[in-house]
Amino acid sequence: MIGFLQAQPAIVLFFILIGYLALGDIISLKTKARLPSVFIFALLVLLTSWAGLIPPDIFDLGGANTVFTGVVSLLIVVDMGTTMDIADIKKNWRVVIIGLVAILGSAAFILLLGTPIFGWEMSLISAPVVAGGIVASLEMQAAAYEAGNAYLVVIAALILAFQSFPGFILTPVMLKKAMRADLQNGGASGKNQALALETKEKFPEAYQTTAILLAITAAIGILSFATAQLTREVLGAFAISQAVWGLLYGILFSGLGWIPKGVLDKAMSSGIILILVIFSAFGVLATTTFTEIAEVAAPVLGLLALGIAGIFIFCILAAKILKLDWRLAVALGLNCLLGFPLNYQLTKESIRAITNDPEEAKYLEDKYMPMMLVAGFVTITIGSVFLAGFLRNFV
Question: Using one digit for the tens of pLDDT, what is the confidence trace for 92-134?
């Protein structure tokens, strides 16, 4: 091996991992998101690990060690909280209900129907991940690590890798059907009642440097950790996790103007931090053998199917009560499998697929984009974090 590669192997391994992510993005773009980038990333990690082309501890050696990724995962939860706008959530109250119902339906089906089939522990670790994606997966993986159960860590990582795939297929189908029905009923010619997402910047722009913003975000992370420890002393098994507190403090302090919305974007750090969070979520895959994957494939697919069935049934029932198009309700509920920016991308693609009329396209975007974004916030950002923070106490 060339001398400088021997002296600095970490940069080579980091390049391999970041290259896998880049290839996943390229394939996702070429296939119009039919193949999710994280699915390609997970597949590449598995295949090259099994072939002996990468070391099992590539994530640690490449700089994504568990200590550092634990830090950045808390930072990104705080950032997620700062993106929330309580006023917009209030205006889209029916969307909020649909999002919460989707989480409830997914978790109920997995816990109630999955437990007799796959066991309590496997259903418990899976429910928050199906309902909420990467942050919920990290929460449940951490709980499984603490419990010393590596098998459950693999389950949480694999569900995260596969769950967006059905979301990419089903969400556009439901959304396009709802949009077409809306246009056929003359929606674009009527008064547009869409609600624009607005943000009010109060944090002084002169102080929005990378160091200051990261220091403030880290301070909120420390506060979240301390509060979680306090609740653990008081509530024991029903303690509220640091991820939940990070989310709440992010919402609170951004609402008060003490920290800007989308703080990691403002700190020019969101990209690298998100990449490290992805590394931490999928790191276990490099140490997983083909035999181990084969053993958990059926439970992973079965639990995903149960969760999606719960989303469909509960959202359809809620749509009847709330007088919403059931297809729109299902599309909103499927944000459990997506979240931002995937929901944004799929909404754009759905609009382009059904109309070339600029007026109709603007009507659909103004009406449906806020709904999809709020649904993503409720499912991925709020509901799943609370669900994971609660259920992790029972692992």
Answer: 788 889 988 998 898 889 889 989 988 887 888 888 888 776 6
333 close to 133: Cβ distance less than 8 angstroms: no
266 to 67, 76, 131: CA distances (angstroms):
24, 13, 28
Q: What is the DSSP string of 310-364?
A: HHHHHHHHHHHHHT--HHHHHHHHGGGG--TTHHHHHHHHHHHHH---HHHHHHH
Q: How many angstroms separate the CA atoms of 27 and 158, rounded? A: 20
pLDDT band, very low/low/confident/very high, at 194 (cuts 50, 70, 90): very low
In the chain, the domains with their CATH numbers are 3-187+200-394 (1.20.1530)
Helix (H, G, I), strand (E, B) or coil at 220: helix
CA distance 44 to 60: 17
Amino acid at 62: G
What are the pLDDT digits (tens) for 210-238?
999 999 999 999 999 999 889 878 876 55
Q: How many CA atoms lie within 13 A of 136 on its CB side?
A: 35
DSSP secondary structure letter of residue 119? -
d(CA 330, CA 383): 17
86: exposed, middle or buried (Cβ count in 10 Å: 0-12, 13-18, 19+): exposed
What is the maximum alpha-carbon separation in the chain?
69
Contact 218, 70 (CB under 8 A): no
* C-alpha span between 327 and 23 (Å, rounded): 33
Q: What's 34's DSSP letter?
A: S
- Token code pair at residue 165: 């795939």
- How many Cβ atoms from other residues are within 10 Å of residue 252's Cβ? 16
Tell the burial category of 206 from Cβ atoms under 10 Å away from its Cβ (0-12, 13-18, 19+): exposed
Residue 192: what pLDDT? 44
For residue 51 the two structure tokens come to 């072939």
Per-residue CA distances from 287 to 32, 201, 242, 292, 340 (Å): 31, 45, 27, 10, 29
